[in-house]
Write a sequence for this structure.
């Protein structure tokens, strides 16, 4: 149907029948299982001058969670050790090898640990207390730890289960603030927290929405050198969730994907613009390497796409840091869950998977656990490892498990709202869209159809000419349009497009730009 701006507002309002949550409605940290127990043990360690170590993760969520904890201990002037596992040398999460490198009486994990049974047992042997803070789905048996703070564990009364690891750490800081009677403004940490919420693809409903909104506002005024540097280098006065998802998060993630995530942590913790610029230039170089490797692995992965319901591709020399990105690209193109694996030095296969629609990837892997050396993650994304001899059996098992699911489960929720002529696109429409922002997981950016759009001109842009920039006109309304990750040339002068309009800020000039997701010729 052909929509008006009033129709758009009505349809979007239907998404939020539960209403809009506000920051003042956030649950208390103590509603997490083990939150009070864990916080009191940390306070005890501070009072006794014990050695405390934080162990994070190499993605943006883990790096932000680590930065938040490090900033908290800096705030109270208490020295700690910080470790982020190296993807290539250490693997994922807490391990006995990492524990051996630390001199700690108390270890606190952030964004990992819920599957660290061996490491937890080693901590117990060494007389080290372990507090696990995580958000990934627990297995039936939990590690033996002093405290486990995870909203998804049985018996946890925290109402909102779909939050990221950095949010769990943020709530822990809130409880520590209360236990220690500190004058700490929790809002001062939201500029970093926003990065994690978006990068870890959290559903932008319930408490995630107001936390992200507040974080985006905080980024506009933040004096944190890393954030103010991003404003200057990206020429942004304000940020959207799309800016974070497609502009900032991939650059930060490149450190853990291509080298060591400590570089991303150093950037976020920069003490000056100069320090931030030095770290950021290194991140940009790694990001360029990441893009090149990603293109290679994607092309080589295409040969593994067949009729099975789950794509499983494998390479001998693929960089472990890009397999998750490539899995996401395969899932997006073929509308099926995808797993991308590479060989390790031990001869095993290790990789990442991404899902589509309502397909629960963690559940599929759980049904294949007898074929795996290990796995972890959640509904949309997971990591796994297995013996090479089990590869074909895994492909078959996943296909059969997924074949039992209805086709609707594979369909993306990012549907087209309806036909919206370009003459309806103006600042009033942008204001309506802003009312229901931020957009992302569980609140997809509204997409519209425009038919018979005239192509005035076009050209390829990007490092490899991988994007298409067009000038489009319909009914007297003219806009610039950008189609990311497509160098497909329009085959005729008039085309049908699927698009969404958004602000485009460049050199302090604000315009409306069309972001094209499909060209229907």
């Amino acid at each position: 149907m052909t929509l008006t701006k009033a129709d758009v507002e009505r349809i979007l309002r239907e998404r939020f029948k539960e209403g809009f949550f506000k920051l003042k409605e956030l649950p208390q940290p103590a509603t997490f299982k083990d939150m009070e127990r864990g916080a009191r043990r940390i306070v005890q360690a501070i009072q006794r001058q014990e050695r405390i170590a934080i162990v994070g993760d190499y993605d943006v969520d883990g790096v932000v969670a680590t930065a938040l904890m490090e900033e908290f201990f800096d705030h109270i002037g208490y020295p700690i050790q910080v470790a982020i596992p190296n993807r290539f040398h250490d693997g994922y999460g807490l391990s006995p090898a990492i524990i051996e490198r630390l001199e700690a009486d108390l270890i606190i994990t952030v964004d990992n640990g819920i599957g660290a049974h061996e490491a937890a047992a080693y901590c117990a042997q060494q007389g080290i207390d372990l507090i696990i803070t995580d958000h990934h789905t627990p297995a039936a048996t939990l590690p033996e730890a002093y405290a486990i703070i995870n909203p998804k564990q049985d018996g946890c009364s925290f109402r909102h289960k779909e939050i990221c690891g950095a949010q769990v750490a943020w709530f822990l800081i809130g409880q520590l603030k209360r236990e220690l009677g500190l004058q700490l403004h929790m809002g001062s940490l939201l500029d970093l927290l926003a990065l994690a919420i978006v990068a870890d693809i959290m559903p932008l409903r319930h408490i995630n929405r107001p936390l992200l909104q507040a974080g985006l506002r905080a980024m506009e005024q933040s004096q944190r050198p890393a954030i103010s540097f991003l404003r200057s280098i990206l020429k942004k006065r304000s940020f959207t969730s799309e800016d974070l998802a497609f502009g900032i998060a991939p650059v930060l993630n490149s450190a853990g994907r291509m080298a060591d995530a400590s570089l991303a942590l150093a950037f976020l913790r920069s003490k000056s613009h100069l320090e931030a610029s030095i770290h950021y230039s290194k991140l940009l170089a790694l990001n360029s390497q990441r893009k090149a490797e990603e293109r290679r692995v994607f092309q080589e992965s295409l040969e593994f796409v067949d009729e099975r319901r789950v794509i499983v591709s494998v390479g001998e020399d693929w960089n472990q840091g890009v397999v998750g990105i490539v899995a996401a690209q395969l899932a997006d193109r073929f509308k099926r869950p995808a797993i991308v694996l590479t060989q390790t030095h031990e001869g095993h296969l290790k990789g990442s998977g991404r899902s589509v629609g309502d397909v629960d990837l963690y559940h599929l892997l759980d049904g294949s656990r007898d074929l795996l050396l290990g796995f972890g993650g959640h509904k949309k994304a997971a990591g796994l490892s297995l013996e090479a001899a089990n590869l074909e059996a895994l492909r078959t098992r996943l296909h059969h498990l997924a074949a039992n699911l209805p086709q609707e489960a594979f369909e993306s929720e990012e549907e087209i709202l309806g036909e919206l002529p370009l003459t309806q696109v103006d600042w009033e429409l942008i204001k309506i869209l802003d009312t229901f922002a931020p957009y992302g997981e569980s609140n997809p950016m509204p997409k519209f159809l425009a038919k018979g759009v005239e192509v005035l001109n076009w050209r390829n842009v990007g490092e490899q000419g991988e994007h298409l920039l067009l000038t489009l006109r319909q009914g007297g309304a003219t806009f610039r349009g950008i189609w990311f990750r497509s160098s497909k040339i329009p085959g005729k002068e008039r085309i049908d497009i699927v698009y969404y309009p958004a602000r485009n800020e460049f050199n302090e000039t604000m315009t409306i730009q069309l972001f094209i997701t499909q060209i229907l010729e």
